[in-house]
Fold each of these.
Amino acid sequence: MHITLLHNADADALEEDPGREARADVERVAAELRRVLTSGGYDVSVLEVGPSPADIVAPLSSRSTDLVLNLCESIGGDARGEMAVPCLLDLLGLPYSGSGALALGLALHKDKAKELLVARGVPTPAFQVIERLAQLEGLTLRFPLIVKPSREDASVGVDFDSVVEDERGLRDAVRRVLRTFKQPALVERYIPGREVYVSLLGNTPRTALPLTEIRFGATFGSKPHIVSYRAKWEPSSPECIDSPSVPCTLPPALEAKVVDTAFAAFEALGCRDYGRVDLRLSDGDEPWVIDINPNCDLHPEAGFARSAAAAGLEYSALALRLVEVALERTHGHPSRRPRRQGRPREAARPHRELLTRRGSLRARGHRPGVAAE
């Protein structure tokens, strides 16, 4: 079986890039996954996605690819280009891992994601999108607030000054986002409390891996307990050293409530295969969804891999499982099933998604127990 591993190669695309470290990390993830999957018996090639995503069409069309592992998180240094790659893969009729273009686009447009959560009754902090400073005059949210770029992920643009207690701090934080990132600022109610991560794997059934949380140490003292960009991407920084991810222990009823909330958030955006939902627990142990991460970081030392290890899935087994999950969803059978040339797939059930390839329609296969998407 041949797997093509796609990843962005744009860490140096912009002269001034506040998300450079996050963009460089994906190349390390790709190298590690290639090593593990090759050891597992797969034929793996790596394809870099440059500033023009259409450039991947020719090489993908010229090789016999059974599955694309999509690790692409940005195009030309812009995270908003992430959804372009699954769009192209859908048009080419190639099965790929992770969420589709719509889910990725919604997750990256944080205000749209939150609107969906509100519509579904999933608890998320009250918010408002600010496109120009004059809009702050009509802001009705109560302090404290947190200000983030509305079109970034990986904590890009988040630091201690992002949490504000008064109008002056709010104006300064919004101005920084507007000027630095050239995009609207998301202003939302800041929820003090424990930060809990729910890693999800699979589709039908979908499984919650063991919960983790951030343990904020003495470095944070009187400062906001948030995972800033430095805490996430600068290993030598005090914020990173003093905010480890640790196993999260909750009373059974609260854990079930947290997991159910994460499931509801994941499903609201149409995410699939794997991902992570970040929540805050308020003083009354109410869970609040603060972020949804489809196609989350798969680095061996990242939180998702650690949660999988706690569930008994070491990194090599996790990589193989990700391949199987994607193939089960797209083809209706696990990766170890023999692949025969010209073998017809099962007929589509009503309302099944149809894909176009080589001028004809083909249905994504289905078997009992595999979700119809």
Amino acid sequence: MPLVRISLRKGRTAEFRRKLGDAVHRALVETIGVPERDRFQILSEHEPGDLVYDPGYLGIARTNDIVIIQLTISTGRTLAQKRALFRRIADNLALLGVRREDAWINLVEVAKENWSFGNGEASYAPAEVKVPA
């Protein structure tokens, strides 16, 4: 965990997309203690008509450079940790030239037993107890 989905408008370079992924991952490591090697990301570019957003929702002026980030993580972080994560992501993206107003972030929390990192096993679930017949 986590699974990170980053969506942005088509036309950015592969290097810029890599830097976006690096910036988000760095924030996860530094603010909520994600292990350095625990990195799973999906970066998607979209045609202008396929990235739909309100340019003024909640009084925040967004542009076509919006970056939509969805983070799926295990439950257990405090509100203070989540706020620090959101701020750090926005700060890191600002260093890449992304306006803070264009950093749109959604965090989805799931129970630890909902992760399988391979082998068809629930990676963080307690070991199965076999009951004798």
Amino acid sequence: MRPAFHPQASFFGYAGDQLAVGTEFLFDWIDRNGPAPDIEPRVMSVDVLESIAVVRIEIANWSGKLAGSGVRMSDLFTFLRMPEGWRIIQKAFHWNA
């Protein structure tokens, strides 16, 4: 997942009552959570304006050590087209537990 994010990307959202900030929080959480074998991501919308894009994704059946089971999440990603390709520069999420 790390290569998709720009090194200075921002990340914000609430995991329950805990404010989650920074991509290192995200990467660490994913590593500690472990596999989510039944995860069902769906792209809901994509809006591209030349060198920027916004993508909304709904994720069902998130599971794992930290997530529990049957969790649903909503993600908003902002992308920037860079010389090496599209990179995520911002992610915000909502935990629909």
